[in-house]
Amino acid sequence: MDDLFRAEPEPQVSESSGPLGSHVVDTRAPRFRPAKVFLALPAYNEQEALPELLERIGESFADTGLPYEVVVVDDGSTDNTAQIVSQLSFQMPLHLVQHQQNQGLGTTIRDALREAVDRAGERDIIVTMDADNTHPPGLIDRMVRMIHEGCDVVIASRFESGGCAVGVPIERHFLSVGARLLFTVLFPTRGVRDYTSGFRAYRASVIRQGFADHGDAFVGEKGFSCMADILLKLRKQGVLFGEAPLRLRYDRKGGASKMQVFKTIWLTLKLLTRHRLRGR
After folding, report:
1. Which residue, 64, 95, 69, 91, is CA-closest to 82?
2. What's the DSSP call for residue 111?
C-alpha cells in the first residue's frame, strides 16, 4: 500500500555559474534531439501510386527510427489524391496542402518547400521526391547520413556508381543524358552528375536561405525544369553537393507520366540561356 502514496521524485537540478552568473539546469531534460526529416511531395492525380508510396515511406522510417513528417501538396487533382492523403494522415505524420486549380510542378514544389521549411528547425532536413512511386524511400537514410557527414545538398543520381534506371522511356532517358551534357559544359558543378533529378535532400537552412535571397523566384520555373532552376540558384549560394546512387524504378510508376518531354527540353534550354547570359 505504501507504493500508492510514494511521492514523485524531485527534478534533478544542478547549479552552474558563468559570465552571466548562476543558473539552474534541469538535468532530466534532454539537451539534444535528433534532426527531423520533412518529405515534400508534389502530387497531381496520384491516387494509383500514393497509397503504396506512403506505405513504403512509413515502413522505411520505422526501420531507421528517424523522426519525420510528410507534406503533400495536391496540385488541383481531379481524382482521389486529397482524400487518400486525408485518410492516411490518421496513420502517419502527414500534412495536406491543396491548390484549388492545377498550377504546375514548379509552383507545387515551391509551396511544398515553403511548408516544409516553415515547420523545420535549423538542423532538420528537407527531402523532395516524386509522388509516383518511382523513387525508393529506403535511400533517404543514406542521403540523410551524407548531410550529417558534411553535404548541404544530396541528389539521388542515376549517374552515380551503382545507380540505374529501369523501364524509363527513351525520350526521358535522352532528356536526362542531354541535360547532364549541357550542364557539365555550361555550369559544371562539383559533386553533381544528375542535374534534373527531383529526389534530393537539403539542409533546411539552405532552403531557408534560398527563399530569403530570391523570395518566390527561388523556384521560378513552372514546369519540370524547376529542379534545374533550384540547382543553379543553390550553386551560386556556394553549397556543397553530393550524390547517392539512385535505382529509378519507372516500372513501378502508377498512372501515366505528366511530363511533356519536348516542352521540358525547350524550357530547360531557355533556362540555361538566361543563366548563362547573367553570368555564372
Report:
1. 95
2. H
Q: Which helix (H) or strand (E) holds 88?
A: helix 81-88
DSSP for 135-202, please give it.
Answer: S-GGGHHHHHHHHHTT-SEEEEESSSTT-EEES--HHHHHHHHHHHHHHHHHS--TT-S-SS---EEE
10 Å Cβ neighbour count for 109?
25
Q: Give the SS3 label for residue 48.
A: coil
- What is the rounded CA–CA span in Å between residue 137 and residue 147? 16
For the question of whether the overall pTM of this predicted structure is more than 0.85, the answer is no
**Complete DSSP assignment for 188-246:** --TT-S-SS---EEEEHHHHHHHHHHHGGGGG--SSTTHHHHHHHHHHHHTPPEEEEE-
pLDDT tens figures, 178-189: 777 877 888 888
